[in-house]
Design goal:
The chain is an alpha/beta fold. It folds into two domains: 233 residues, TIM Barrel (Alpha-Beta Barrel); 49 residues, no CATH class. Helix content is 47%, strand content 12%. It contains 14 helices and eight strands. It is globular. 38% of the residues are buried. Bound molecules: flavin mononucleotide. The site of flavin mononucleotide has 21 residues, from strand 2 and helix 9.
Length: 313
């Protein structure tokens, strides 16, 4: 089976991807958090740094573009092509208020005529240079039934992979994914499909796999892989239990690398806090120590609390 690492803005940067890939591996593709091209530039210096091939050596990386203007998409795709990428991904799912206010992400989904024109333009460009464009989409903006028309529209284009997160915009990332719509896609999509949403444990995957007669392969994992970095190993049958030695290595690598590029302490600790908000579920009985490390303002306090978390593990 193939496992794709979902893009998580602010988390799955090249620092994280390199650390994760070196320690765990077994990821078939990483999708980078979106870049948002403008009339001024296809990507910011920081976005470029994150995507530079030398910062992602040995990693199968797909950059993601968030825009509703085909000329901006094509400018960014050309730039990415020049950097050596032969696949880019279109973000049609971002639910954030600032993104949707600009008609991008999930807010582009109900604009079906404009969307069709946009796809016409970008796939015409892709055909000129043999570039693959995959799409990551929600079911719709207002209503999941928007998905029926969207599948028809998507069927008119050679989408290299259609990654479906079966929620609508107002669901954000909460509640049960609307799996019956993914079943509809399996029946009606002409494009290869990838399922994404709420796979946090091996059982979640096997339940879904049993639900859909065709099985789920590839599958895209996001929060589940952050919360339990051994999840890909578990799904691929390399391990049954969470590997805490690898986990500690991941933690220590990220903590060290963030210290190299960030200061003061508190900024690094904010980064670690975000990760611990996912990781804490792995550490039953360590709630007090985790509370302390989440409150730490200096490395010394954090280090002491982390040592206590490791005790006995
Ligand atoms: C903090 C955060 C940042 C995200 N950033 C992106 C992004 O840059 N591009 C994107 O397509 N999806 C983004 N997503 C959505 C995830 O890629 C994924 O679709 C979502 O988390 C559902 O999958 P999961 O249940 O496996 O986590 C983000 C989600 C979260 C929680």
């Amino acid at each position: 089976m193939k496992i794709y690492f979902a893009p998580l803005e602010g988390i799955t940067t090249h620092i994280f991807r390199n650390a994760y890939d070196g320690i765990y591996g077994h990821i078939d593709k990483y999708f980078a958090p979106f870049i948002s091209p403008s009339d001024k530039c296809p990507m910011t210096p920081r976005e470029r740094k994150d995507l530079l091939p030398e910062n992602n050596a040995g990693i199968a990386l797909v950059p993601q573009i968030l825009t509703c203007k085909s000329e901006f998409f094509i400018d960014a795709a050309k730039e990415l092509r020049a950097m050596g990428y032969n696949e880019v991904n279109l973000n049609l799912g971002c639910p954030s208020g600032t993104v949707c206010a600009k008609g991008k992400g999930a807010a582009f989904l109900p604009e079906t005529l404009a969307l069709q024109g946009f796809l016409d333009d970008i796939y015409s460009y892709a055909a000129t240079c043999d570039m693959k464009i995959s799409v990551k989409t929600r079911l719709g903006y207002f209503n999941p039934d928007e998905f029926y028309d969207l599948v028809d529209i998507f069927n008119g284009f050679p989408i290299s992979e259609l990654i479906v997160h079966p929620r609508i915009r107002s669901d954000f990332y909460k509640g049960e994914p609307r799996k019956e719509y993914f079943a509809y896609a399996l029946e009606h999509s002409k494009n290869p499909l990838v399922y994404n949403g709420n796979i946090f444990a091996a059982k979640d995957y096997s339940d879904l796999n049993n639900l859909f007669a065709t099985g789920l392969d590839p599958v895209m994992l996001g929060r589940g892989l952050i919360s339990d970095p051994s999840l890909a190993d578990k799904l691929k049958g390399f391990s049954v239990e969470t590997d805490f030695a690898k986990f500690r290595k991941l933690h220590d690598t990220l903590y060290r690398e963030y210290q190299e590029i960030m200061s003061p302490d508190i900024n690094v600790l904010y980064k670690m806090r975000e990760l611990w908000s996912y990781w804490q579920a792995l550490f039953d009985g360590k709630e007090r120590d985790i509370k302390r490390l989440l409150k730490a303002k200096k490395y010394a306090e954090y280090d002491e609390a982390v040592e206590r978390v490791w005790e006995g593990i």
